[in-house]
What does this fold into?
Amino acid sequence: MESLEVKNLTHHFGFTEILQNINFTLKKGEVLSVVGPSGGGKTTLLHLCAGLLDVEEGSIQNSFKSTAFAFQEGRLLPWKNVIDNIAVGLLAKGEKKDKALKKSQKIALKFGLEEEDFEKYPKDLSGGMKQRVNFARALVTKPSLLFLDEPFSALDIGLKKELYAHLLDSCKENEMSILFITHDLMEAIRLSDKVLLLKADPGHIVKTFEYDTPNDKREENFIYEQSAKILQDKEIIDTFELNTLELT
Amino acid sequence: MKFLFKILKDFPAYLWSGWGAMASTLLFIAFWDLGNQVYGNLVLPSPLETFKTLYTMLQDKDVWEQIDITLYRASVGFGLSMLFGSILGLIAGFFATASMMSRPIVTILVGMPPIAWIVLAMIWFGMGDETVIFTVVVASFPIVFVGALQGTRTLDGDLKEMAESFDFPWHMKFFDVYFPHIFSYIFPAWVSGLGMAWKIVIMAELLATSDGMGAELAIARSQLDTPTALALVTIMITSLMFIEYIILEPIKREVELWRA
It folds into this structure.
């Protein structure tokens, strides 16, 4: 069984402790999100899990066959057009060029890009289109584990919903797992099986919330209800410092 | 190959866009003629006379030989600068210490007047090819070096991370992530280095050799032969314009299509 196991993970930048004793396991087909305020070490945690940073203390065991990463900002190669940008992940895996391009075109259409956009360079794309390309690039490789670094934060509601649907589709079709960091609680509740609450200075996990309803069956009502409920939670109020807001 | 084909395909459209440049050149020649009417033939020969002299000069085999000599010196000098400037610039860019250490040296090379180099080179190498080539190298090397250094220093860390997250093999990292970025810095540096080389070669020849276009210019000066001097200048400028607008600019346009 493929899984990502994080044990006693602690990380420093210089003398500052960023993460302290993090433990969790992400199983196959599961969506796990880490929520917390900005600057709380979420991105560091994700980068450690994705192998973009070296683990100093503790261990991360990743037995997923393949991974992909969707970034907060598109991070598209400015000198490549839409299709070539989507294809890089496949080419990196050694796929033949014409096959990679065909697959890329197919997924681009599925992600709402139009044929006339295929030859465009990133400079000519809107923020939403860049993010579509970003997602297509990550999902075209059919990863068994997908890392998401707040990729929805700058998108409008319609596009968000569309991308959520694509993600859940991929989860179902390929039994894809997702490790997802966000500061948006509603988003976390909508997509995740498990939500870890990461409190800052140094980053440590204070609470875990679990949602049993299958994520493609969650109605809007369910999400609002759960969001309202979670906002009453003492740990959430503490972590996001919600009470100080009311005082001022 | 596909790339070369695309450059050729877009070439006519590019040429067509040159009417504006043509108009301003003709305007310049008109002002030149006006200057001739005001100041007379000795100070400023008319464009017509200059072009006539140019025509007779180009019939002369000896003039072509001189052009050849100059071209040889400029291209050897520039070739050396391009090669070593690019390689050393890339190396310096990849290592923080090297780029720190090279900065003052570059400042010295850029700041030192070429004329001072010519004097030194004349003492070191005597009057001949080496002096000219040395001066050309010294003048255009720092431009290329700085271009390559900047290109490497400014590589985008976010894109590197992206490449790592997708496990790019080394050749993809180089050709798809590093190279296009570095090239967008190094290519303009080559262009200005070439311009510099072309200017310096004439100056060095004028002072330090008895052949080449610079030396011809010196002879024209001593004989107060203004039409010949102007004809020589015309050759220099036209050849530079040819290289820049007909060869380099179309390449640059294709290479930098992705730029905002």
Remarks:
- The interface with chain A takes residues 158-159, 161-162, 164-169, 172, 176-177, 180-181, 184, 257-260 of chain B (CB under 8 Å).
